[in-house]
Specification:
The protein has about 475 residues and is of the alpha+beta class. Helices cover about 50% and strands about 15% of the residues. It contains 19 helices and 14 strands. Helix 16 packs across helix 17. The longest helix has about 35 residues.
């Protein structure tokens, strides 16, 4: 068991993986300009002696040695709280490795159907933990015509499927979309996109393979260009991460890396397992973002001299309500944790789904308050280059003045952050991610309906109506 250094992480990516971006096949992503920002983010998570977060990033594994805390299986409330805190200070390129928590949480259910699959889950978890690897959540299929099931599509490959079963493994063909950080990790952990019927057995498949496995090809897209001015783009310049369109072109998967191969009854179990931890991550980010919105709203209000304006105060109160509802929901979910038969502790399922739904359903409305407070300057503010130009800069400094004590550069930075977070590169990505990450609103509605104690609610309603229990 050995922790990698940032440089060892970068060196480990020079493994012959097939990567495309902007029409170019990229042989070495570690030296290509398009990958420098996202790689720096993930590499920073390998800084285990960082004075601020080094201790948070590592833990003492059960069987000796140290590993990244992304692999720690929470077994107490304190473990869970520490994991949530770690998530606040970790890049998305590392957080996606939480897919192993999903797999380990359903290992017992998998074992009841096929013990070999459960053993494979345990082995791959330990292999990635002990070698300090990162893995991507590979779940969403292209899906084709949504009115038809996987085996009914015009092209049978529109859902990832098994095309050959061999004595030494399986061969799969298909694609998975929206795979965050796929090019930056070591393992592609493939999960079913949804429950499957028995006639779709070839589509009930789950496994983990190295990114450089023959037949795997990744086509990348990011919300931000490679190089951005951090004054004008304070979020996008430092936080971009590519999304991968991952192609499996007749890829061979050895049996010891397979978690599911045709047992349709397990497909929904594996698909659901990922949702909880992914939505937990979404709520953690929602808490951070909503608090940031409150701060930005208050700053622009003060800078404009509208501290006592009742409309502004009402808008800020709405933002505070949103932020506090999310913070309290996350706190409740962690304090009222659940656990698996093997002792893994995880946030309350109903609370996390309700929180993620509240976050997603109200996100666009919440951003509206911030835009209303900021006004048109959110979009039309001149660039830093114009501020630095002595000729144009003098006019910017003159006409952006509001009152004594308000620094022009600070004001511009606040407005730039609002624009970047909510109305530009990062903001466009976030508008979609808030809704779709961890499954869209219907997915959270389904889980809330499944997990809410409806029997108790009906008993209370009948009692209140004066109906005797029957």
């Amino acid at each position: 068991m050995a922790l990698k250094t940032p440089q060892q992480y970068l060196d480990s990516l020079r493994d012959g993986r097939v990567i495309y971006w902007e029409g170019e096949r990229i042989d070495d992503i570690t030296t290509h300009p398009l990958f420098q920002v996202p790689l720096s983010l993930v590499a920073a998570d390998y800084e285990y002696h960082d004075e601020h977060y080094g201790d948070l990033r590592r833990y003492n594994a059960e069987d000796g040695g140290q590993a990244h805390r992304i692999y720690q299986i929470p077994r107490t409330a304190e473990d869970l709280a520490t994991r949530i805190e770690m998530m606040r200070h970790t890049s998305i390129g590392t957080l996606v490795t939480g897919v192993f928590m999903a797999l380990m949480s359903v290992r017992e259910e998998v074992a009841r159907v096929n013990p070999m699959y459960a053993e494979n889950i345990e082995r791959l978890y330990r292999h990635c933990r002990d070698n300090d690897l990162r893995g991507a959540e590979v779940i969403t299929d292209p899906k084709g015509d949504r009115k038809r099931r996987a085996h009914e599509q015009d092209d049978p490959d529109l859902y990832l499927r098994i095309v050959e079963r061999r004595a030494d493994g399986i061969v799969v063909r298909g694609a998975k979309l929206h795979i965050t950080a796929a090019s930056l990790v070591h393992e592609l952990v493939v999960m079913p996109t949804k429950g499957m019927r028995q006639e779709e057995a070839d589509y009930a498949v789950s496994f983990s393979i190295p990114v450089n496995t023959p037949g795997v090809k990744i086509i990348n897209r990011s919300f931000a260009p490679a190089e951005l001015n951090s004054f004008d783009y304070p979020a996008s310049a430092h936080h971009s991460c590519p999304e991968g369109f991952v192609v499996f072109d007749d890829v061979f998967v050895p049996w010891d890396r397979v978690f599911l191969a045709g047992e349709a009854q397990l497909a929904s179990t594996l698909a659901r397992s990922l949702g909880l931890w992914e939505r937990t991550g979404g709520v953690v980010e929602a808490v951070r973002m909503s608090e940031l919105f409150v701060g930005l709203a208050q700053l622009v209000t003060e800078m404009q001299g509208k501290d006592s304006d009742p409309v502004a105060q009402n808008s800020i109160a709405e933002l505070i309500t949103y932020a506090e509802m999310l913070r309290m929901s996350l706190d409740y979910a962690c304090r009222h944790f659940e656990s698996t038969d093997s002792g893994m502790v995880f946030p309350d399922t109903l609370a996390i789904n309700a929180a993620k739904y509240y976050y997603a359903a109200n996100y666009h409305q919440t951003v509206r308050y911030l835009h209303d407070l900021g006004g048109g300057l959110v979009l039309t503010l001149p660039l830093e280059a114009d501020l630095r130009n002595p000729e144009s800069g003098q006019y910017i400094r003159k006409y952006l003045h509001t009152k004594k004590g308000v620094d022009i550069e600070a004001r511009m930075r606040v407005y730039n952050l609002i624009r970047d977070l909510t109305a530009d590169a990062y903001g466009g990505w976030q508008f979609v991610v808030a809704l779709q990450a961890g499954g869209g609103l219907p997915a959270q509605r389904t889980m809330m309906n499944r997990t809410y104690d409806m029997a108790r609610a009906k008993r209370l309603a009948l009692a209140a109506a004066g109906v005797a229990p029957g």
